[in-house]
Design goal:
With 964 residues, this protein is α/β, with parallel strands linked by helices. Helix content is 43%, strand content 14%.
Length: 964
């Protein structure tokens, strides 16, 4: 109010007084006077600053010009008073002004521009001017020059900033239709498939809390403020009251005067507040201008203080407008003297100023550089090229420049990555993160308590996740508190309810006060009665980075890589069996083979008795022999079939067609059975049945006997659901249709199902968890390789300011080998790890021990023992015959035969000279004569030794005793 009064008394009448002095006395220094007009609004308050900027810009121009002097003539109007505005413009025209600056209202500026167009007086404005719906008409804007950034280009700058910030959704808060028009490009960058943009308008009600609470309940954390500067601070102050100035809320202020607001009370808020600025507040030009303003007002005894960091955009634009207009006058006046003219708005013979169009056209092609940077106009007099500073509210120095923008290069950051990292790390000091997780070995487990020990806080847990986040906290210097997610899930999106569950849900909500009694009951920790998950900053566990999750939350770089693999039970090692060599054939087959063996032997015996070709002459040299023999008694028939099935053959063969046919079919049968037996013997002895072998996912997909499943709602399940590979699609269809369900609630349930499934169930899970299980359950193993490749990451809310710092800490731990040490510790050492580290030699794994083939030796020993017994019986039977034939005692016969048998030097044995009647009576007459003749020869020779050939007649063998 004081400033308004001062301005009304001393400033308002100053131009008239100066004009009167100039009219009466002329120019003191001989300069030609060129009057310029300016129209200001009585509100807002910074109009006074704009007027000061205008006046002292004129003063500085006059200090340097030698041939002309600008004379400012100022008028004041209300922003809504179009009638008074029209009258003031006509007054200025009548006073001979060569240009009109302002006003800043769209309504009044339009009237001024229309009159200036009619009179061809340059009209220079410094406010936002939208493009008409029907497009720009060059005729209407022929005399208008606007130093304010062109509306579409400024809107594009905001759109580029949003894209650079990766805002996928946001809420726009605006207070006027003009403000919504300024965000045209921002609304156009949103595609149909993108998350919805919310647009909320505020009215004159100063209580913004209900609106802010609605935005907070929607989960939105990105807000664009398109409101008047005088409302910004109050809205943010109320946002702080409803907890909407936290680290995960981000604000972009579109007003180019945001830097003039005193944010001292909000400087230490954790939210990100970004704004745009048209000028570099640290430049020499603006400091020099502010110095002129303060010194000039001091001379007029009017205290005025303003810092370069708080200069309004309009004030700077007025300064640059005067400068560029003076440059045009100077350049054109050098070729032709520019003289002012008094013009009348209501004259019937309407006159136009002849120099006006030339001045405007020169300004359009002239490039200048002022407080607000480079000044370049397009053909319509709009400022189409300009530079913007992107500024961010900091704790130390208020708004700080972090980047620049221009239409050619877009966003270009001026601070280094090191500065960003240092700023983030500094903000992390003494901060306590709420880290959400879930129980699952080895990532997070309840610590085993000792007797009488009470555990609370982070001491309740142990595992890989806890030590990982502990290592990161030591690098970055923050504190943390581990909490369990109530539902115990990783996080999947329900397309029906359009909501997330698990860890992702609580990162999105970030505020939850639900007890987890049910979760505690599931994991069996009675000491933890309640747990509250509030403001979850991070989620650390075996959470897989997927595309779907990445659309909802952010992830750090992966701290562990993995893939999907198959958990299956190892083949059950059966007890050693001495007769396991019989396994290739079942008991039924062995019985059938024995039956066939006996049947074929009997058939061969019968057919040989019937077939004439198998009756032979025992002495082929005697053609007149009256008797023939048949060697195919039952013993020979059994021996032939036995030799065939053993693959050794026989030295006697059938001669008849029928018997040969039987023998041939038997040999064919024996060959097939022997081949089948030998082919399967090794597999059976090593317990490697082909029907129980699974080597890959393809093997699972091709069969239906062995069931397989995954964790319900996990990333592995999503992999099969969305896969385009035919094998995985077939596997998913099989899992989905299986009854009972093959899905499990956890990896532990899947592990137990594989153990109890007796090789009739396989479980598809991530390789890291599979490695942990196979290190502790030696009867389980991994089948095949990895079906895909992915990674575990630390999740956090979208656009979290701590993502870069935490990713850097993870990378540092990886480079130092700490991640490898952590995995080795929790996979192979802790909680029973390392039990199954022995890897059997592949060559020894298939070797057969005595336990597998010992039965063969038993059979051999039994056969040899039986043969030994039969040999003894044959020896005793022969001793008995010798004793009878030689008429000696059995004891003498036994000693003589045994003595001869033990004399290994003797290779031939004589035949006894007599035969017992019992033996001779059963022989044919031909054989009896032969035996009698051979007996007489033996009697003549006495105890001489017979040739080796006589040993073939075993029935007559013996020893000739000397009776003397």
């Amino acid at each position: 109010m004081m400033q308004g009064t001062r301005r009304g008394v001393s400033v308002h009448y100053l131009p008239a007084i100066l004009l009167l002095v100039h009219a009466l006395c002329g120019s003191v220094d001989g300069k030609r006077e060129i009057p310029i007009g300016a129209i200001f609004h009585q509100v807002p308050d910074h109009s006074y600053e704009s007027e000061i900027a205008f006046r002292y810009a004129v003063e500085r121009v006059n200090m340097h010009e030698k041939h002309f002097e600008l004379v400012p003539i100022v008028r004041y109007v209300s922003p809504e008073d179009s009638f008074r505005t029209e009258r003031k413009v006509c007054e200025l025209a009548a006073e001979g002004v060569t240009a009109v600056f302002g006003p800043s209202s769209l309504l009044t500026a339009g009237i001024v521009g229309s009159i200036c167009k009619t009179l061809e007086i340059p009209h220079i404005i410094t406010h936002w001017d939208p493009e008409p719906l029907g497009g720009i008409e060059a005729e209407l804007r022929a005399m208008t020059i606007n130093l304010y950034p062109e509306a579409d280009v400024l809107s594009r700058a905001l759109a580029d900033l949003i894209v650079d910030y990766s805002w996928k959704s946001f809420t726009i808060i605006y207070d006027s239709d003009e403000g919504l028009m300024r965000l045209k490009d921002i609304l156009q960058i949103h595609g149909p498939a993108d998350a919805p943009i919310t647009v909320r308008q505020i009215d004159d009600d100063p209580d913004y809390r209900p609106l802010l609470k609605d935005i907070q309940s929607s989960g939105e954390s990105h807000i664009i403020l398109e409101i008047r500067p005088d409302r910004i601070l109050e809205l943010l102050r109320q946002a702080k009251e409803v907890k909407m100035l936290e680290e995960y809320q981000s604000y972009i202020i579109t007003s180019l005067d945001a830097h003039t607001i005193d944010f001292e009370e909000l400087r230490y808020s954790r939210s990100n507040i970004t704004a745009l600025r048209l000028m570099d507040t640290k430049s020499f030009d603006i400091k020099n201008a502010v110095h002129d303003w303060e010194q000039g007002e001091a001379r007029m005894k009017r205290p005025f203080r303003v810092s370069p960091e708080h200069v309004h955009t309009e004030s700077a634009l007025y300064n640059d407008a005067v400068k560029i207009y003076a440059t045009a006058i100077r350049e054109l006046d050098a070729t032709e003297e520019i003289t002012p003219a008094r013009l009348s708005c209501g004259s019937k013979n309407l006159r136009q100023w002849p120099f006006g169009l030339r001045i405007v056209n020169y300004m359009k092609v002239k490039t200048e550089h002022g407080i607000t940077g480079p000044i370049i106009f397009d053909d319509f007099g709009r400022r189409a090229h300009f530079h913007l500073d992107i500024i961010e509210l900091s704790k130390d120095e208020g708004f700080k420049k972090i980047a620049t923008w221009d239409p050619t290069h877009g966003v270009n950051y001026t601070r280094s990555q090191g500065e960003v990292y240092s700023q983030i790390v500094e903000s992390l000091q003494n901060k306590t993160f709420i880290v959400a997780s879930r129980i699952g070995a080895p990532f997070l487990m309840f610590k085993e308590k000792k007797d009488g020990e009470f555990l609370e806080g982070n001491n309740r847990f142990e595992g890989y996740s806890l030590e990982l986040i502990d290592g990161i906290s030591k690098i970055l210097g923050f504190q943390y508190r581990m909490e369990l997610v109530p539902d115990g899930k990783y996080g999947s999106y329900n397309k029906v309810t359009k909501k997330w569950d698990g860890l992702v849900k609580y990162l999105l909500d970030r505020v939850s006060a639900q007890t987890v009694d049910s979760s505690v009951e599931k994991v069996g920790n009675p000491t933890q009665l309640h747990s509250f998950l509030q403001k979850a900053d991070l989620a650390v566990c075996d959470l897989t980075i997927t595309y779907e999750r990445r659309t909802a939350v952010d992830f750090t770089m992966p701290f562990m890589t993995l893939g999907i693999s198959i958990l299956y039970a190892k083949p059950v090692q059966q007890p050693k069996d001495l007769f396991s060599f019989l396994s290739p054939l079942s008991l039924d087959v062995w019985i059938y083979m024995a039956t066939a063996y006996l049947g074929v032997s009997v058939l061969l015996f019968v057919l040989s008795r019937m077939a004439p070709a198998d009756w032979e002459n025992p002495h082929p040299c005697k053609q007149d022999n009256d008797e023939v023999e048949n060697i195919w008694d039952m013993c020979n028939a059994l021996w032939l079939t036995m030799g065939s099935i053993m693959g050794q053959g026989c030295d006697i063969l059938p001669k008849a067609i029928s018997t040969r046919l039987v023998a041939g079919m038997w040999w064919f049968f024996a060959l097939i059975m022997l081949s089948s037996y030998t082919a399967n013997l090794a597999a059976f002895l090593t317990m490697e049945r082909m029907d129980a072998t699974i080597e890959s996912a393809e093997d699972l997909a091709k069969q239906s006997k062995i069931k397989y499943g995954v964790v319900m709602g996990g990333s592995t399940m999503a992999f099969f659901q969305t896969s385009n590979f035919s094998t995985y699609q077939r596997m998913w269809a099989s899992m989905e249709s299986a009854r009972p369900s093959v899905f499990t609630k956890s990896n532990d349930e899947g592990r137990d199902r594989v153990i109890k499934g007796k090789r009739m169930y396989a479980f598809l899970m991530e390789s890291t968890s599979l490695e942990y299980i196979t290190e502790r359950y030696c009867d389980l193993t991994q089948i095949g390789g990895l079906l895909d490749s992915k990674g575990y990451g630390i999740a956090m809310p979208v656009n979290s300011p701590y993502r870069t710092a935490i990713s850097g800490a993870v990378l540092k731990m990886q480079e130092e080998g700490k991640l490898y040490q952590l995995k080795t510790r929790w996979w192979k050492e802790m909680r029973g790890g390392g039990q199954c580290t022995e890897v059997p030699n592949s060559s020894q794994e298939n070797e057969l021990g005595i336990g597998n083939v010992g039965g063969v030796f038993v059979v051999l020993a039994l056969g040899c023992f039986c043969a030994f017994l039969i040999g003894i019986l044959e020896f005793l039977w022969n001793v008995r015959k010798v004793a009878v034939e030689e008429k000696v005692t059995p004891w003498d016969a036994l000693k003589a035969e045994l003595k001869f048998a033990l004399n290994i030097a003797v290779t031939s044995k004589p035949v006894h000279n007599t035969l017992s009647e019992s033996t001779a009576s059963g022989k044919s007459s031909l054989r009896s004569k032969s035996e009698s003749r051979r007996g007489s020869e033996l009697a003549g020779r006495g105890n001489s030794v017979r040739t080796a050939a006589s040993l073939t007649n075993l029935d007559k063998s013996g020893f000739a005793f000397d009776k003397h």
